[in-house]
Every structure is written in structure tokens, then in C-alpha cells.
Amino acid sequence: MTMKEIIAEIIAAKKEDGGIREVYFVGCGGSLGAFYPAKIFLETEASAIRTGWITSNEFIHNTPRALGKNSVVITASHRGNTPETVKAAQMAHEAGVPVIALTWSPDSPITKVSDYVVGYTFGDGKDIAGEKTIVGLMAAVEILNQTEGYENYDKFLDGVSKIDGIVKRARKHVEKRAQTFAEEHREDSVIYTMGSGAGYGAAYMESICIFMEMQWINSSSIHTGEYFHGPFEITDQNTAFMIQVSEGPTRALDERALTFLNQYAKRVEVLDAKELGLSTIDSSVVSYFNHSLFNNVYDVYNHALADERQHPLTTRRYMWKVAY
Predict the structure, then answer these.
(1) DSSP assignment, residue 206?
(2) pLDDT at 159
């Protein structure tokens, strides 16, 4: 079934109970981060639908009271076996809440406890329009369009049709810059990421999944709207920052932070969505595509940095190796 068909079936089943009122995006790490644009989409565009973006183990132990007959849970696990996410999906499923699971691994544990299973593209040369983030976004877009209506639905679909080409051109564009970054930052012990809006999830993922998990570099993601409310005090000429300058309504937040960084910091890597070509997508929907652009451009930097540091992205100290 397509995502459009899945959402239509869920809505039809809930018609007599009042339809969909709550959508919970549940996952861990990168899978949770991938849902950030979908969370922001519904929070921004929906009038009556409540949205939750919750890490799986907290969903289990601090379950929203509203979870029930008017809820939908959308979850993701790449290998389909993340214990906390499988348990969260099972809990929602047993409560009678429809669960849509996004996974790259068919017949994995999460597929056994979910009502609907949707695959996505992954790996070198993947179609960006079919990756996890866009699939999660499409679930949110279909829910809104089929309940309240979404006036920019066609423009959003046009954006989906363009994102693969935009991302692949952008990745090529940053190759030399990424190599220079890797050479200049290979000895760094701290790198901060910054961003805002629907693209903030990419900064979050880069910080926790790449710098901390895969490179053992201390990091934190800083929302550019929060930068001036504490974090900017650590700014100096030696501290490294990667800042996302998004296209869309929160660009002003990013530009304000960048202006300050340009005055007081010296080691700032700028990823500007406008420079990287995202503005070819209609302005009414462009903000929701920042994440896919930044997340896939980061990948070029990540491989260059891993090679320069001789620290493969597959290296782990604890993950999948010890009990936790």
C-alpha cells in the first residue's frame, strides 16, 4: 500500500470515533531525528491535530494520556530490531492504536508488531525522494490533506520530485569544501552544530549520531533561536561550529546567529540552503526540505572527516558490543 492508501484506510476506520486527533512520531537516535520535519510540518500546518515527537523509551515509560482511539503512531527502526522502538510499537498496537513502521529491513521484529510497514531507500546513490525523512513527511502531509486539507499539497509533491536532483548537485558542490573541513578539524575534540525550523533535526542527528557516536567527538546541537540565551557564551576563536542556514521562515534566526559567529568566531562552517539550490522549491513548502538537504550534504563531510582521522564511521566502543 502507498502512504496515501494507508492514511485513507486509517481515517476510514476511525470515522465513527471522530477521526485522527493525535499523531505520535516515535523512534530513537537517527530515526527519531528523521521525523523532525514531519513533527514541525504538523505543528505548523495543522489546526486541530496534536503532535508528539518522543524517543521510544520515554514513550514506553511516560506514555501520553491522550494515546487512544483518535491516535496514530508512526515509528521507525532501520534494522527493525531497536528494542525500545519495537516495544513502543507493540505497546501502541496492543492498545488498538494503528502503528505505521518505517524500516529498511523486511520481516524484522518491528514488522510483527505494526499494522503497516513501509520501506524506504538507503545507501549510496539512493533516491532522496524515497528516503526515511521524506517517507515520514509524506505520512504527515497525507494525514493533514485527508483530514483538514492542505492547500499546498501539489507544491509539496513538486518539491518531492525536485529534492533528489537538488541534493545530488549540492553534494557535488561541497566535495572540496568538505575535504578542507576534514583537514582543518581532524584534531578537534569539540564541534557544535546549529540550525532551526524543520531542518533542526539534521543538526541534532549530526551531533549525536556522527560526531558523538561515530567519531567520538564531543558535540551538542544548538538551536539558533536559543543560541543567544546561554550557548553563545562559549563562542571564541578556537571553538568549531557547523551552522545550517535554512530556506524558509526561520532563516532570520540562522542569519542572526551567523552574524554573531562571523564577528566573534573564526572556525565556522556554513551550510546555506539557498547557496545549495533549495530555493528552486516553492517558498510555501521549501522549509520542510531543509532536513533532507543538510542531512545528505553532511554525509560528504562525514566521510571526508572519517578518512582524514582514520576513524571509520562503523567504529563503535559500546553500541552492539556490550549490554546496555
Answers:
(1) I
(2) 98
